[in-house]
Amino acid sequence: MSDQKKILGDLVKSVETWDLKLAESATKAAIEAKIDPKIIVQEGLGKGMETIGNRFDKAEIYLPQVVAASKTMELALKLLAPLMQAGDDVMKGTIIMGTVQGDIHEIGKNVCCAMLRGAGYKVFDLGPDVSPDSFMEAAEEKGAHVLGGSALMTTTMQVQGEMVEAVKEAKAPYKVIVGGAPVTQKWCDQIGADGYSENGAEIVELVNKLMKK
């Protein structure tokens, strides 16, 4: 087995087992071996996060493990940051995530944030109870490509519609994606959002598609 293969294997394993020490040593080894940062992120760390996403969907692991894996990934990304020219050429895009105004449920959103970070996106999590204005301000400040609004109650779903309206009114280039337990593809179409994700594993595929448009 080549050195590169072994190092990438260690990177995958470090995320799958949320092993911070292994993540640190494997990332340093990858840097020393002059492996392209894109390969480190996509073939190493990101592959590990894919496994985590699949296992979470099958309920083999739960949110604390997903968060632990994403923290492992973040540690590795910090070590890689100097090689990434502030991360812009390796990071695939910038995403603003939040639970919409009036709603304080965060578990699903946290999983989505972890998955997107794992897939190589720069994610800014605004937390719960986020107004459409706050989404727009953060998007402008961070140069976002995608805004993700989660609603876990039927009473807060209309705020997702207000997010779409805010983007249209400002003629802003952001794509709006929605999710949450009561949210459906039909609702997404009704409010004119750009995409709907049922779970953490789907969100990466959805955002990848939107980024290509």
What's the layout of helices and strands?
Blueprint: H1 3-16, H2 20-32, H3 37-57, H4 63-80, E1 94-99, H5 107-118, E2 122-125, H6 132-142, E3 146-150, H7 157-169, E4 175-179, H8 185-191, E5 195-196, H9 200-212
Parallel strand pairs: 1-2, 1-3, 3-4, 4-5
Main features:
Methyltransferase, Methionine Synthase (B12-binding Domains), Chain A, domain 1; 57% helix; 213 residues; five-stranded parallel sheet; 2 domains; alpha/beta; Rossmann fold; 10% strand
What would you say about this model in short?
This protein is an alpha/beta fold and 213 residues long. It has helices at 3-16, 20-32, 37-57, 63-80, 107-118, 132-142, 157-169, 185-191, 200-212; strands at residues 94-99, 122-125, 146-150, 175-179, 195-196.
Word description of this protein:
The chain has 213 residues and is α/β, with parallel strands linked by helices. It folds into two domains: 3-84, Methionine synthase domain (Methyltransferase, Methionine Synthase (B12-binding Domains), Chain A, domain 1), CATH 1.10.1240.10; 94-212, Cobalamin-binding domain (Rossmann fold). It is 57% helix and 10% strand. The protein is built from nine helices and five strands. Strands 2-1-3-4-5 form a five-stranded parallel sheet, with helices on both faces. Strand 3, helix 7 and strand 4 (175-179) form a beta-alpha-beta unit. Helix 1 (3-16) packs antiparallel against helix 2, helix 2 (20-32) runs parallel beside helix 4 and helix 6 crosses helix 7. The longest helix is centred in the first third of the chain and has 21 residues, at 37-57. It is elongated, with a radius of gyration of 17 Å. The termini are far apart. The model has no long low-confidence stretch (mean pLDDT 89).
